[in-house]
Design brief:
The chain is mainly beta. It is 4% helix and 45% strand.
């Protein structure tokens, strides 16, 4: 990697400001830890260009219900819906994007943990089991479904084990038929066995139409509907477009433990929601928000048996000694079953790391369990904990802990200072590791890397110290002006800690006049000028093709400084600062001031203003206007000039070029000729033809951008 790239990377932490993203919508936990939502998904958009494969996806609270985003747990078109009971997934699989007269639905059963296919039956008739949505009824051990043909929708009762479907008969003894003027989308069943259906109706008022959503209770004996409320209302939609979605697949599902019913629906072309649906009032309250379009045909909580244990709590890892690789696991066993009823007697404890069982024991419900001594490696470890009884296994939870000495975290207070050509780098040693665990401070050492170079011929990345024990490093630098930044990395043996950058400093001998000219490369910018992004919006001075420019912000007023290198000035000098500057766009003028002071800090620079313009002109026929500023200094010494952009937000950009400062009493050229020369300087050489970093005392040969050559004598 070349110097320019490395320097930009190395200084990114210095010149960049953190930008705060909008506060995300935080979804609520909808189930006990260890109980995930699985959904049969017809469509899921992964990014702006790609969609995920159709199939079964997990939606976890820890992932804010965003789904796996990549590969499903099991692929397949599940347009007929899916539901769950007692560790098994029941689904009607077919693709309604294909011709239904050329395919037959399949009734399939999966193991909910492994997705092993336990049953697969191709239906004899295309419309024997062409469903839209499924709901398991725990009181009857049957599945209810919205069935359909091209012409009709109706209520079906399905045998979970075989897929055999029976069309419910109406009060008149004929097969039931739903209304044909509405769209039926999802069916759900609560823990008491009551059936509900969500449908959409389009109401036409003149030239306008409005989609209204409704919840109905369905009588299982004859498929008679009873409207719940006057329509579904959403009381906390994230914005006005939610809930006003086009007709797509959606689903209802119930938490067997809490009895709450949920509605999973695509809210618009960019989002999906899970809402808690009140089956008495038809009020929907959004509980989970997915920032991606998801079309779900079925969803369910993968719940254990109601009388199985709930989860272990108060987990902790107890090491035998600081940094030891042996220790014990401790946690409290549940005193309640999954449904909240009391547990008694012994429970079975299974703890795994990966597929390996490390604890298989029994202990009293509600007691605190402490394992025997366990051996681990020096790293992070994740174990799964499952508590079971005669009713079955409870939810499985995962816990992560660190064993041994931790990876050192980054050093803090990394500070680079200078005195003359000597820099001093200091820092505070880390006391904890990246996981919050102890580190072996007795063996802690440091590696220091310096970034900075004066030309492409020099290495930009140099390891300047290794095996340091003290939190300090000093070194001398050449006289040439150079910007330096250091990277400090702690380590213990082979365990590499987190590296962190220091602040950056420009180090070098103060310059003599005259100084300046064209920015011929990023070196002229990075190694000489101090950039201060005072409002920390990451919109500041940058280099581009022989110029520097201020990159505007849409949101923040400019407050950005470009401060010169140290320059020797003498009392009584008749000094002139020349530069070219312009607003990029004529309708967006920029504001710029020139300051002067004895240090390259903002408070010092603000003490003296040399020039300002609240509305800089744009470039004229490609040429940037030239400005001159005359000034004197009160005493001999080292001084700095500064350019401060303070334009209002959304003003455009500001160009700055050909900065040149000289003593008019010493430089033997006219102001006019100097103006012409400095505006178009390509490079300068001495009388021997050697390139110089600006004009020096004596004879200077100046090569212009247009190919012409000028001779300038500096006394």
């Amino acid at each position: 990697m070349n110097f320019i790239k490395k320097t930009i990377l190395a200084l990114a932490a210095v010149f960049s400001a953190q930008t705060m993203s909008a506060q995300p919508y935080m979804s609520e936990r909808l189930s006990m830890e260890g109980v995930d939502i699985i959904s049969s998904v017809y469509y899921l958009k992964v990014n702006a260009y790609d969609a995920g494969e159709p199939g079964y996806y997990a939606f976890k609270y820890d992932d804010q219900y965003q789904g796996q985003q990549t590969t499903p747990l099991k692929t397949g078109y599940v347009c007929g819906g899916s539901t769950y009971h007692d560790g098994k997934i029941y689904a009607c699989e077919y693709n309604d994007g294909a011709h239904l007269d050329k395919q037959k639905p399949h009734w399939v059963i999966y193991n909910a943990k492994t997705f092993e296919k336990l049953y697969d039956r191709e239906m004899e008739d295309n419309y024997a089991l062409t469903t839209l949505s499924l709901a398991y009824n725990p009181t009857e051990n049957v599945i209810y479904a919205i069935g359909r043909t091209y012409m009709e929708s109706y209520l079906l009762k399905i045998d979970p084990a075989t897929g055999d479907a029976t069309r419910i008969k109406g009060a008149d003894g004929n097969p039931n038929v739903f209304r044909n003027d509405v769209k039926y989308e999802a069916i759900g069943c609560d823990k008491a066995g009551k059936l509900f259906i969500v449908y959409m109706q389009t109401v036409v008022d003149g030239d306008e139409s409005l989609d209204t959503w409704h919840l109905v209770k369905v009588r299982k004996t004859d498929a008679k509907f009873s409207e719940v409320g006057t329509g579904i209302t959403v009381d906390n939609g994230v914005n006005s477009t939610y809930f006003q979605n086009d007709v797509r697949k959606q689903c209802l599902f119930t938490n067997a433990r809490t009895g709450k019913m949920y509605w999973f629906f695509p809210a618009n072309s960019s989002n999906a929601c899970i809402a808690e649906l009140n089956t008495k009032t038809a009020k929907a309250t959004i509980k989970a928000y997915m920032s991606q379009p998801i079309v779900s045909t079925g969803a369910f909580f993968v719940e254990p048996a109601l009388k199985a244990p709930s989860i272990a709590t108060e987990f902790k890892y107890m090491e035998n000694a600081v940094g030891a690789l042996t220790g014990k696991l401790q946690f409290k066993l549940p005193a309640e079953a999954y449904d909240g009823t009391a547990l008694t007697g012994n429970l079975t404890i299974t703890v795994k790391e990966g597929k390996k069982v490390i604890i298989n024991a029994k202990a009293e419900a509600g007691s605190v369990f402490t394992s025997g001594e366990l051996n681990f490696t020096n790293s992070n470890h994740t174990v799964s904990i499952t508590i079971s009884n005669e009713a079955g296994e409870g939810p499985t939870i995962n816990r992560t802990f660190f064993v041994g000495y931790d990876t050192p975290s980054a050093c803090t207070d990394i500070t680079l200072t200078s005195e003359g050509l000597k820099t001093t780098l200091s820092w505070v040693a880390p006391t904890k590791g990246t996981n919050g665990s102890p580190i072996d401070t007795d063996k802690l050492k440091y590696k220091v890397t310096r970034y900075g170079a004066r030309s492409l011929d020099e290495p930009s990345e140099v390891v300047v110290a290794e095996d340091l024990k003290e939190c300090k490093f000093e070194e001398e630098h050449p006289a040439d002006m150079t910007r330096y930044v250091y990277l400090v990395q702690p380590y213990v043996g082979e365990i590499k800690g987190v590296a962190a950058y220091s602040n950056n400093l420009i180090v070098g001998t103060p310059l003599d006049l005259p100084y300046g000219g064209q920015f011929k490369s990023p070196f002229d910018f990075m190694n000489y000028y101090t950039i201060i992004d005072d409002n920390q919006d990451n919109k500041t001075w940058k280099y581009a093709g022989g110029e520097v420019y201020y990159e505007y912000s849409k949101d923040n007023d400019a407050d950005d400084w470009l401060i010169s290198p140290p320059i020797n000035f003498k009392k009584g000098g008749n000094y002139c600062l020349m530069f070219n500057a312009a607003s990029v766009l004529p309708d967006y003028p920029e504001a710029l001031e020139v300051t002067f002071g004895s240090d390259r800090t903002i408070p010092t620079q603000m003490q003296r203003q040399l020039w300002f313009d609240d509305a800089l002109l744009e470039a004229q026929q490609g040429e940037l206007p030239t400005y001159t500023v005359d000034f004197t200094v009160p005493e001999d010494g080292v001084y700095y000039y500064g350019f401060h952009c303070y334009s209002p937000a959304y003003s455009g950009s500001l160009r700055l070029a050909n900065i040149f400062v000289y003593d008019k009493d010493v430089t033997a050229v006219s102001s006019a000729s100097m103006d012409s020369a400095k505006k178009t300087i390509d490079f300068t050489t001495n009388i021997a033809g050697q390139r110089t970093s600006g004009m020096q005392k004596g004879i200077n040969i100046i090569k212009m951008n247009d190919g012409s050559v000028k001779k300038v004598i500096v006394k």
